[in-house]
């Protein structure tokens, strides 16, 4: 079971439609999988599986746990901040689009919070 992951509730205009899970730790290593639970069908779908090849080919967050996550743009985008990796802490900001499903890394201006979990 994945621990230290960040679940985010997804909804349309008035009804909950699901739950998005990213990352976590499975007692062996940190994860970067993206799972979607559809509340209407009570079914889980893995949207993205961690793979080193995929990480090279596109923007992907480092596998992590203990990060923060929120929804943005009427629940169509999930934004994550920071977390723990095998060798320390992060302070990066990435977003995941529920419509097109790519990750975007955001370069932040000015000072930012210290790396943390």
Strand-residue proportion: over 45%
Class computed from helices, strands and strand pairing:
mainly beta
Overall geometry comes to: globular
> Helix count?
1
The helix content is under 10%
Rounded average pLDDT: 81
For the biggest sheet, the summary is: 4 strands, antiparallel
What's the β-strand tally? 8
Low-confidence stretches: 52-56
Radius of gyration: 14 Å
- Write the H/E string, N to C: EEEEHEEEE
Strand order of the largest sheet: 1-2-3-4
How far is the first residue's CA from the last residue's CA? 19 Å
What this model shows, in words?
The protein is built from 1 helix and 8 strands. It is mainly β and 117 residues long. The chain has one helix at residues 52-57, and strands spanning 6-11, 16-25, 30-38, 43-48, 68-72, 77-85, 88-97, 103-106. The two termini are 19 Å apart. Mean pLDDT is 81; it is low at 52-56. The relative contact order is 0.19.
């Amino acid at each position: 079971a994945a621990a230290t992951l960040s679940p985010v509730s997804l909804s349309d205009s008035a009804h909950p439609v699901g739950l998005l899970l990213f990352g976590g730790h499975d007692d062996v290593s940190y994860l970067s999988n993206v799972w979607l639970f559809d509340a209407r069908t009570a079914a889980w779908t893995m949207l993205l599986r961690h793979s080193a090849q995929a990480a090279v080919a596109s923007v992907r967050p480092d596998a992590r746990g203990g990060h923060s996550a929120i929804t943005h743009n009427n629940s169509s985008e999930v934004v994550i901040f920071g977390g723990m990796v095998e060798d320390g802490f992060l302070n990066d900001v990435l977003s995941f689009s529920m419509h097109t499903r790519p990750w975007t890394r955001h370069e932040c201006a000015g000072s930012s919070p210290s790396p943390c979990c």
